[in-house]
Amino acid sequence: MPVMNSRPALRWLVPAAAVAVVVGGGAAVGTLAATAEPSLPPRTAQQLLVDLQTARLDGLSGTVVQSADLGLPNLPSLAGGGSGTADITSLLTDTNQLRVWYSGPDKTRVALMGTLGETDVIRNGKDLWLWSSKENKAVHRTISDADTKAHPLPSDLPMTPQEAADRALAAVDPTTEVTVGRSATIAGRDAYELVLAPRDKASLVGEVRIAIDAAEHVPLRLEVFPKGSDQTAFQIAFTQVDFARPDDAQFRFNPPPGAQVDESTGLPEAAKPDTAPKTPEDAGFTTVGEGWTTVAVVEGGEDGEAGQEGDQAAQVLSMLTPVSGAWGSGHLLSGRLFSVLLSDDGTVYAGLVAPERLYEVALEHK
Questions:
Q1: Would you give the DSSP letter of residue 4?
Q2: Which intervals of the chain form a coiled coil (predicted)?
Q3: Domain coordinates of the chain in residue numbers?
Q4: What CATH number labels 32-265?
Q5: Residue ranges in the chain modelled with pLDDT below 50
Q6: 3-class secondary structure for 42-70?
Q7: Tell me, what's the pLDDT at 265?
Q8: Strand-strand pairing, 205-213 and 219-226
Q9: CB neighbours of 112 closer than 8 A, spacing ≥ 6?
């Protein structure tokens, strides 16, 4: 089956790269908002992990800078996000500034600030707003607790150090070495540093560093370093932070006059519990290996590309490296932290590993 006839695999290509980053433009920002190393009472790695797990946060607002230098080509967006969602290719290749507000799990707001406009994701109780000032368009959904349990919001890439740390800490298992790094001052606050490193040196990830507020125990910065490099491939950090609870007005959104508003109830049908696949295998998703060297395998579908999506898919393939071997043939996306192989039979292989490991899995998968 020609690779161009497999839309699900192609549409999974860029999100796969995003997943590789969070489990773990242009130039990186260096050590964001960090100054001299403060003197703090000693804390063990286990104590810092407990601090993160038991921290209670009533409210927070601040400015976040996120940067990525993943060594990727300038891919067109295939993430399928609608108006109001952050452009995933921007978050994978550029330096971005975001404003964040938090007043409990059902009152959150993230604003991605761009030169051409602002993109907001706002959760206020049962109201979820996705707003694009550039397009003057909003998507409004009325959601329930069951909806958010089935499909937590927002998704894709982490937009705060807390989200990034949560996903990195999910990798803490016997395959991970956890140590304490150097303390730092970030956004004017003293912080400890927790360091996560893969025990399996076959991973392209060298280490993940999480700076934790010494008083509030909230992540202030997360950095991901490729193996053998002292230059970050991905980082996200507060440059300004306030732990006072934001005013409720921050979470109320009224579309401006003339804005296009898409109104709907609940989440898309594919995300609902009664219609979603019951297991990853049902969705054509499996994994090979464990820990930091896990390879995700996503089976291709049969429906064909058409129109704009087909043009985008062709553009992506033209930017990828053609590869072939005993496993078959396809196209390779290789970055500083991960590799993604799109085979000509429509199957995608992705992991925090070198391409050679993907070829091994593809051969076993034949």
A1: G
A2: none
A3: 32-265, 275-365
A4: 2.50.20.10
A5: 1-34, 78-86, 88-89, 150-156, 268-278, 302-306
A6: CCCHHHHHHHHHHCCCCCEEEEEEEEECC
A7: 64
A8: antiparallel
A9: 86, 96, 97, 98, 118, 119, 120, 159
